[in-house]
Amino acid sequence: MTIDPSDIKRICRDNGLRLTAPRKIIVETLLEATDHPDAVELHRRVTTISPRIALSTVYRTLVALSEKGVLEKHNFGNGPARFETVDREHHDHLIDVVSGNVIEFRSGEIERLQEEIARQHGYEIVSHKLEIYVRPAKRRRSKISAARHRRQSAK
Ligand SMILES: [Zn+2]
Hints:
By secondary structure, this protein is an alpha+beta fold. Helices cover 44% and strands 14% of the residues. The protein has 6 helices and 5 strands. The chain has a 3-stranded mixed beta sheet, with no helix packed on it. A two-stranded antiparallel ribbon has the order 1-2. The longest helix has 13 residues, at 55-67. The model has no long low-confidence stretch (mean pLDDT 85). It binds zinc ion. Fe cation binds at residues 90, 92, 111, 128. Keywords: Cytoplasm, DNA-binding, Iron, Metal-binding, Repressor, Transcription, Transcription regulation, Zinc. It comes from Manganibacter manganicus.
């Protein structure tokens, strides 16, 4: 499903949700986001546009639109639910457990492997969700600094 900001009105109408001004701002803000914000962060952003929108309105809108399939709700680890619109191509997520950053990626090889595994078990994939929890890799010492280290240790 692809959602364009101009589709918001139609989606809400089709789903019997009145497109109130706050709802419109909430969805538009989420359409612009690329970082899968949680409700509190989204609320912070919408109140820069419309200071009177309540956090409870943001919560209710997110829940209603997730139920209608307009938004995808993610529960990454133990953190609060985070949201993204379903307007983008399928992708998987790397979740940085240190910073909470979410990185999107897509691997044709992983997609193919998953299909193969499902097929081997006599199934076809309906959908899948891949979340990989990561932390920044320890940087490997460059050759130069490794050589310097050896010299210093030899002294
Ligand atoms: Zn995503």
